[in-house]
Amino acid sequence: MSDSTYKRLRAELRSIEAEGLYKRERLITSPQSGEIRVAHADGEATITNLCANNYLGLADHPEIIAAAKAALDDYGYGMASVRFICGTLDLHRQLERAIAEFLDMDDAILYAAAFDANGGVFEPLLTAEDAIISDSLNHASIIDGIRLCKARRFRFQNNDMDDLAAKLRQAAAGAPRSIIIATDGVFSMDGTLANLPELRRLADEFDALLLVDDCHATGILGPGGKGTAAHFGLRADIITGTLGKSLGGAAGGFTAAAQPAIDMLRQRSRPYLFSNALPPMLVGGALKALELCRAGDDRRATLRSHARHFRQGLSAAGFRLMAGEHPIIPVMLGEARSAQDLAARLFQLGVYVTGFSYPVVPRGQARIRVQMSAAHTTEQLDHAIAAFAQAGCELGIIS
Ligand SMILES: *Cc1c(COP(=O)(O)O)cnc(C)c1O
Asked: Helix (H, G, I), strand (E, B), or coil: what is residue 152?
């Protein structure tokens, strides 16, 4: 019976492959860092890694590893429980309070991932009598979270504030009790920032809450790395974030907000209620990561200067980049095949990048998303720029 199902899946997989959209995973044999070891056909190679979200270079930091080990020794391997039954450690509350204080919010709530934070943030706060207005480029987890909520949904074109105002007027016409405007702080495939000053102004005008998913901004943007809202000198009402990028790169997510919102999430948020507590070692490691992040102005300065240097180098070589200043640097290549071929050639030249294509980005806008890390050295980046120039010429992408 199920034979027909497998037949259909195999055919679909073949067409994904034929379109050049098939994702293959490389095997890494070292810790995550500016340079990594990877397995390949005849052994291992050491290459410069330009595609991790390891912005502050903390993924292999010895103090974080030591803090994680200490928590492992003190609290054991796992909690074998969700938070509300018998899974809440003093350490969990310590991290939640530290995150809330860092982001200047009343409280924070931990999840196994930011995907879960976003998946579980809308449904407890809103019902069919409410409305959500969401940016068209928001992360998949926000889209899924909104799908799970009964509120009326509106989508505005990426960072188009006229469209947002129109959608807010449309939503307001239905006299919703509450409105949430949801946006990424930094759009992950473009490295562009949400227009938070205008988003804030419109949120206030329509008495809406502003939710910012700051996964690619926490630790990077704003004074002390407090994120996109801090960068613009304003407040978001709800911030969702990850422990899997700047803050150590392991796993875990959080939502930070005013007390009644967090209290309600603890009562009703399904990925929180029905999923295991974050393991002690991740919590201990994240506490140290947050401390290093707060004291990380030097790392942020390195990251900014790396981003400037790399953008200049690739532009001078003739590549088309999406403009910006974020350590996400999208090299625009058009067709999926072109991004894949360039990534493959760069790998041979000792540079690890990933081609992104549909459905992760729109069709015809395939790209290589380069990401800077404070763990990179200028020599590694210069080598990578030279490799891009060589591979780009060979493949006829630049002349
Ligand atoms: C990475 C990312 C997530 C998911 O984070 P995880 O903690 O890995 O689940 C959510 N939103 C955005 C914008 C992201 O970039």
From this structure: strand
